[in-house]
Amino acid sequence: MIAVVILAGGKSRRMGRDKLDIPVDGKTLLGSAVGRFEADFEDVFISVADEKKYPGVTARRIKDILPGAGPMSGLHAALSTLPHRGAFLVAADLPYACPQAAKKMIKLCGDCEACVIRLPDGKLEPLFGYYDKTLLGSCENAIRTGDYRMSGVLYGANTRFVDTEELGDLWDERLILNINYPEDFERIT
Hints:
Layout: E1 2-7, E2 23-24, E3 27-28, H1 29-38, E4 44-48, E5 60-63, H2 71-81, E6 86-91, H3 99-109, E7 114-118, E8 124-132, H4 136-145, H5 150-155, E9 159-163, H6 182-188
Parallel strand pairs: 1-4, 1-6, 4-5, 7-9
Antiparallel strand pairs: 2-3, 6-8, 7-8
Helix pairs in contact: 2-4
């Protein structure tokens, strides 16, 4: 089994306030992400630095074990504590992240240790992708050495890079649209 882990530990510095609490279509950005993925996946968790944060969201929490390393801390905590074979990471600030695209990527992953989208310009989207439990040591090493880049783990693993056309009708540039600034919210509301 694979868990979905929604990364909700960021500090929202560029937004100027906690962006995950901002309402979008009657729900918070975080609540919307949890609702979308709970409809299609049995085990959905939110990865947080503080377990008491977001009391209105009922999803189970995973607390950072080695805090301060951004998304790498969340991935490390998920792979360390969950009994699942792996985790599909979803940044909570991707308002159009699609559970069906996540399922397709898990299928495309096959026997690889990780699976992420590779854009036509070669850039990767590591915060919408699958990570196998075998990568726990790599995550821990990255944190301990201060190299928090997800790409370091991905390039050091047996990673399946999914080109956008492989997602077929599930691909839309909005799938990985990230909300960081107040003007980004204007584009989605």
